[in-house]
Design goal:
alpha+beta; Arc Repressor Mutant, subunit A; 2 domains; 6-stranded antiparallel sheet; 10 helices
């Protein structure tokens, strides 16, 4: 299928702590080869997904694939009826498990292992138009593939710190400052925060700011206004950060799919 006959991409953005991505349909052909910080899980249903590992690697047809952090690759979702592309922060429990397993190599995921999830995602996205249902299926898929158990912060000191960060998503926050909120020394808080959230404080704060940007973009704000509202110096600063972590600019998230059409994008309250 050439670009002239390809259907334009129509999709939605989904996110939770340390993981975010797209569910959609259509596309204008293969994207340019790129690399990013996040581990990528890409799924195409019922068929049509192509993945290229490296700048000159062979194109491989598959049902789903895992791409390691910082590995050059490209994907072509054009012929998939439904596609899911998830970015997994390497320092989350899921990311650590996948990093240890991948060892820098592309992994093709068996079609039978993701067939049920693909059907449930299509139902949740196209028919039910439920953000909660899409999130639940995506989260379970990542847990199953990474062979990790679900977890969320439960220590009241970390929960207090998380709420403090949420209320200051447009401001810079320091480790000593947040540690005081948790009533712990900076060193003790640093270790406890990683244990509870799976991410260092600096990475977590960056995730919160990026999620806030994408929520604002989905609500119709401009890149410039969303960048300033999330504490970035300008839209160029935001774009550099997004490309570093995910290999794509924030403008790629200015899209509307069934989830947005149903009732708009709600603020992401991820742990």
């Amino acid at each position: 299928m050439d670009k002239a006959s390809a259907k334009p991409y129509r999709g939605d953005f989904v996110a939770w702590s340390g993981i975010c991505g797209f569910i959609g349909a259509g596309g204008g052909g293969a994207i340019s080869p790129h690399a990013h910080y996040a581990i990528q899980l890409v799924l195409g249903a019922p068929s049509g997904l192509r993945v290229q590992f490296g700048r000159r690697g062979d194109w491989v047809h598959c049902a789903a694939a895992l791409v390691p952090s910082r590995a050059t690759h490209t994907v072509d979702l054009t012929e998939c009826d439904t596609s899911v592309v998830l970015f997994i922060e390497p320092e989350t429990p899921e990311g650590r498990a996948l990093t240890a397993r991948l060892q820098g190599r592309l992994e093709l995921v068996d079609g039978e292992a993701v067939a049920c999830a693909a059907k449930r995602l299509d139902q949740a996205w196209r028919v039910d138009r439920s953000r909660e249902a899409v999130h639940a299926v995506c989260a379970q898929l990542v847990q199953d593939i990474s062979q990790t158990a679900p977890r969320s912060p439960s220590d009241p000191r970390v929960l207090a710190a998380v709420e403090y960060i949420r209320q200051r998503v447009d401001q810079s926050v320091s480790l000593p400052e947040v540690a005081r909120v948790a009533k712990l020394s900076p060193d003790r808080f640093r270790h406890l925060f990683v244990e509870e959230t799976g991410m260092p404080l600096r990475t977590y704060v960056l995730w919160r700011r990026l999620l806030h940007v994408w929520t604002l973009l989905s609500a119709g704000q401009t890149l410039s206004s969303a960048a300033h509202a999330a504490g970035f110096a300008d839209s160029a600063h935001l774009s550099r950060t997004a490309r570093t972590m995910f290999g794509l600019p924030p403008s790629a998230l200015q899209m509307k799919g069934p989830l947005s059409e149903k009732g708009g994008t709600r603020s992401c309250r991820t742990s």
